[in-house]
Amino acid sequence: MRTLTPLFGILVTFLLAAASAAGAAEDWVYPRRVYTTRPAGPTPPVVDGDLGDACWDRVEWATDFVQWEPQEGVPPSEQTAFKILYDEHALYIAYRAYDSEPQKIDDILARRDWFPGDWVEINIDSRNDRRTGFSFTSSVSGTRGDEFISEDGNEWNGNWDPIWKLRTRIDDRGWTAEVRIPFSQLRYTRQDEQVWGIQVQRRLFRKEERSLWQPRSKDETGWVSHFGELRGIRGIQAGRRVELLPYTVARTERSESVDGDPFRDGSESDLSVGLDGKLGVAGFATLDFTVNPDFGQIEADPSEVNLSAFETYFQEKRPFFIEGNNIFDFRIAPSNAGGSFTSDNLFYSRRIGLRPHHRPDLAGGEHADVPENTSILGAAKLTGKTANGLSIGVLESLTAREVSHIAGPGGSREETAEPLTGFFAGRVEQDIAKGDTRIGGMVTAVNRNLDQRSLYDLHRAAYSGGMNLFHYWGNRSWFVSANLAASRVEGRPEAILATQTASARYYQRPDNDYAGLDSTRTSLSGHAGSARLVRAAGSSRFRFETGVAWRSPGFETNDLGYLRSADEINQFSWVGYSVRNRTGIFRRFSINANQWLDWDWGGTNLSRRANLNANADFVNNWSMGGGATRTLESISNTELRGGPSSRWPGQWDLELWVNSARQGPVFFSAGGNLGSGDKNSFTTGNVWLDLSVRPANALQLTLSPSYTRNRRELQYVGTESASGEPRYLFGRLDQKTLALTLRIDYTLSPNLTLQLYGAPFTSSGAYTDFKRITDPRAGAYADRFHTFDGTEIAVDPADGSYLVDEGADGGVDYRFDDPDFNFRDFNSNLVLRWEFQPGSLLFLVWSQSRMDVARDGSFAVGDEWSALFDTHPRNIFLVKISKWFTL
Prior knowledge:
By secondary structure, this protein is mainly β. Among the domains are: 31-234, Immunoglobulin-like; 282-289 and 316-572, no CATH class. Helices cover 5% and strands 51% of the residues. The strands form six sheets. It has a 24-stranded antiparallel β-barrel. Strands 1, 3, 6, 7, 8, 9, 12, 13 and 14 form a nine-stranded mixed β-sheet that branches. The protein has a five-stranded mixed β-sheet with strand order 2-4-5-11-10, with no helix packed on it. β45 and β46 form a beta hairpin.
């Protein structure tokens, strides 16, 4: 740690001086435009795409759009105009998208949130906080798109699905659209006159051109903060929203029956009901609640074979947890430079309703019925923002006690698979000076009812909390941010011992002399945080970021958050040079450089990395990019999975990708990466393709194959004991992975879609040249391990395990299982989605899964796929109907 402070100070001073010199010119800002609306009168417009309703004459057209892409500030190829009216229930928008060649209008039909073809969208900052907004996109085909905008445009969440109405028409002057957005779908406070931020943007698909009503300089940071203003809305009420969405799900499952297993007869059916709802609270907040939620129509996570010591991070897909999730976001160290540490967060909603922790130990002849997921009995979420800029988020969820049923020769019994658990998250953040400064805090809590000894390795309670500070200056060209967090977990000694020895910290490392392992602990505490300085915008083409982050060894948030690794200090920097307007053959291009330094809490420099990357968009609407990363020789505290730290050769990583133009019936993205370790320690390569074909306006086929070859001289196999001493065993791994994703999307109408998804996945790994680590931090790579020769290792013909005779003296010192693997997985679903009334949905779902695991290690595509599809499938048929009510 002693080297961190001077290094960080020198780096900050240098970058500050460089950026100040480069960005001395004053930023140019467009004047803010204002649109004044009026009431629609006694007869609001009929939303049919025909702009002939008399009420539209009550307001003027807003026009004079300015091109944004590819060239900022010039007139667009085709002009656009809009009008806005309102009544006590909703906002009405009329669009006139002029087109001198209406026969070339791209009215591509697609499912919701695909944003196909030509479109016009309105972004509404109804809180007028200059940071969050609601986006409603109207494609000429009638397809709706909607997104929740947060972090001043840095985050766009397309999983938000509000209820609104759209109709369009094409005529000889271009096309028109009418939109009705209920006020219940927006968030605002009660005021005599509402003053909202708005932006209207048009996409001319055939030229990939964007034009804006409110011009904006590309040299300025942010998006929402540069909206124009909507004025004139008076007398509307806030806080009286009541929306109810009861639903019924009928589900039947067919799978392979297992002789003698009373729980596997091949058939299972059930009928369930539930309720989702929204309530307006206190005029500025929304209470979302759910009782017995069902997520049967949600697409499965991608398959993987994870050979690392760390958990994979998966995106949230469940609708209840999506809206307002920006309020609960508390990343320990967000960074433009990237890095694995940037995913660490105090709140990770995937923890709620996860697979039960405990699986029973079965005696001979016993069978078990173990729940696949933990049932969410109910959840409630309060989110909102007051008129004085205070954001509030409170989430409470209760998950059920899940039970494994066990039957065998000795009779039937039960074991708790997951205890009754309560989850809580609370978040506040105060805007100061119109959002230029923000101060906030967050707390989380998890409490479990541990009623059986089998659950004693879980935390009884887990708490975390944090504070954040964010401040802009220089017309939002610069900002600093700082986050501080702390955690505490409590439980029986076996639970806290498991936490100390988990892969996030490995207290048991024999060379860990700064975080002592204590098997009698009943609690563990830690702290974390980050600080960043960022040049975010300005007239200069240079931008940069530098910062530092840390997680102390005892920091632990994985009960409700996500933490990959504690016991780390990270220093990071990023600098980018961008040309953001058309220049020669480029629409835009950028060059970026990154560097990272990592230490552990004992002061050991773990890694040193640097990256250079570039990307470009061309005037023909193709794009490409690539980069190179150099990692110098590093120290790992995790590769020996609780053993001593180890030294690893440096490596090169290269990446290249290209995208074709999307304007034709066929378009693709393709790319690959290559990694190569020094000393021939490893080579890895990956190639991928996303190919989309649109044979008809309403039909799109997408094929996404990828192939990965991973060859490593040292891949962890296991830890065994000989003469009371640990043996850290590795082998040479040759892993081949083939994945394929097929999607067929057929859109019968904007409200009726049929989607087919299929994803076969196969991965095999063959191990040879087994080794044990002898001197993990030796200077010479070859001195760090010993490779067993034919006299020291043999295969046990009885079970295929390996027998090790160190020194070849005729005895067996220890054995380990054959690590070869073949993992085959297939997930698919066929979903018919019909929005038969606004907000009311019918889902017909057929999902099929197949999984097969073997220990062969060989790889032949035909054999792998034959084995996969010879596996008996598990089929689930589901009918879900939900009806939306508003009061």
